[in-house]
Design a protein that fits this description.
By secondary structure, the chain is of the alpha/beta class. The chain contains 12 helices and 15 strands. The strands form 2 sheets. A 9-stranded mixed beta sheet has the order 14-13-12-11-7-10-9-8-15. The protein has a 6-stranded parallel beta sheet with strand order 3-2-1-4-5-6, sandwiched between helices. GO terms for molecular function: nucleotide binding.
Length: about 400
């Protein structure tokens, strides 16, 4: 294809992330033409369309019918991801979806099914997920080291990620935020899809999940704002996952322990304690009663100059659309994996028992629907200043 080929793209959802992130990088890309922006808030759609020199739509079917788009970026509140993506695939459109893919596993499966069906008719159809944290240099290096197998058999992973502090004002900034009906969950659905994706990208989906979620413990919200989870993998590795939006200063510490050493990522530093021999072999063979394996402290060099973020994910997506396929930062079908972990944690917490994966997705959906139906929560909304909020503070 010629270098001057442009992908006709539409953007649906012009809230914080749509307006403050997607619109900004799309303006800088010379291989895309923004043929329409869409939001149910008419004023916002009109304003952004005028700024971008494009057409405003207030209904995604209108955008699909009239704009001549080839690809769509979905940046709406979570529940809308499913019907919009399914309809886009039905029309043969390429889709780049914001995280999470859906609120629950059943909805995620609907999007994936719609994609697989459309892909049978057009094998070059591209489906990407906006997991931009996979582009972050330290996470890329963790992936590199874990995938190489140099840690040997992995025994434990502990991720304390409490650097997601959110004020009550944040939760009050939108009527859909932190409600079962609007968002379908709290920290696991909003802040942590990246972390849940990162976990499965590195280690796969656990076989068993025990979750402990606290609902509105620190904020006036009806969803979870503090979660501790324990995972078991079939190969014997265990995992811990601790997150909250109510800790300041927060911590982001990731420990990955294998027989050949321990990796620690914290404060933009990656350290490997490299064992001289396998700790599992050592514990079986040593005659010492209290000896440790000799290990060497190594700070791992990481290239922090490489470009990162939403734009990198979008560029890969656009390249794949132009080239009839190609490598993406994250394929859409992978979106169900982190979601499985998140739903599993909540299901375990609601039922107060460990769940096996795969679990009964219908049972989780029933619980969610019941929480929506019986909600007595009255939402106070104060959205002053959020449309121009600085989103950069929101990304780790």
């Amino acid at each position: 294809m010629g270098t001057n080929k442009k992908v006709k793209i539409g953007l649906i959802g012009l809230g914080n992330i749509g307006n403050n992130t997607h619109v900004k990088y799309l303006k800088t890309m010379d291989n895309v033409e923004l043929v329409g922006v869409c939001d149910v808030a008419k004023e916002q759609a009109d304003k952004i369309a005028a700024e971008c020199g494009t057409t405003a739509y207030y209904d995604y079917n209108q955008l699909f019918d009239q704009s001549g788009l080839e690809a769509v970026i979905i940046a709406t509140p979570h529940y809308a991801h499913t019907p919009i993506s399914a309809e886009a695939f039905r029309r043969g459109l390429h889709v780049l979806c914001e995280k999470p893919l859906a609120v629950h596993v059943n909805d995620a499966q609907k999007s994936i099914d719609a994609y697989e069906k459309a892909k049978a008719a057009n094998p070059q159809l591209v489906f990407g997920m906006m997991f931009q944290e996979r582009t972050l240099p330290f996470y890329k290096k963790l992936k590199d080291i874990v995938s190489s197998g140099e840690l040997g058999k992995l025994t434990r992973v502990t991720w304390i990620n409490t650097a997601w502090f959110r004020s009550q004002a944040y939760y009050d900034s939108g009527d859909w935020r932190a409600t079962w009906a609007g968002e379908g969950g709290g920290i696991l659905t909003n802040q942590c899809p990246h972390n849940l994706d990162m976990y499965q990208w590195l280690f796969g989906v656990p076989a068993r999940i025990s979750g402990h979620a606290h609902i509105g413990k620190y904020h006036n919200i009806e969803v979870e704002d503090e979660v501790t989870a324990y995972f078991e993998h079939d190969d014997g590795m265990i995992g811990h996952f601790m997150v909250t939006t109510a800790e300041s200063p927060g911590t982001n510490r990731f420990e990955i322990v294998g027989e050949h050493g321990k990796l620690i990522y914290e404060n933009e530093k990656l350290v490997l304690y490299k064992n001289r021999m396998s700790m599992l072999q050592f514990l079986n063979e040593t005659t010492e009663k209290f000896g440790n394996v000799e290990s060497w402290y190594t700070e791992i060099p990481v290239n922090t100059k490489a470009p990162t973020g939403h734009k990198v994910v979008a560029e890969k997506f656009i390249e794949a659309v132009l080239n009839g396929g190609g490598e993406l930062i994250a394929h859409g079908t992978e979106g169900i994996k982190g979601l499985t972990i998140g739903n599993g944690i909540m299901l375990s917490s609601f039922t107060k028992q460990m769940v096996d994966v795969p679990f009964d997705a219908d049972a989780y959906e029933r619980i969610l629907n019941e929480l929506i139906r019986t909600s007595k929560y009255i939402k106070t909304v104060n959205d002053s200043g959020t449309s121009e909020a600085d989103m950069s503070k929101s990304f780790s």
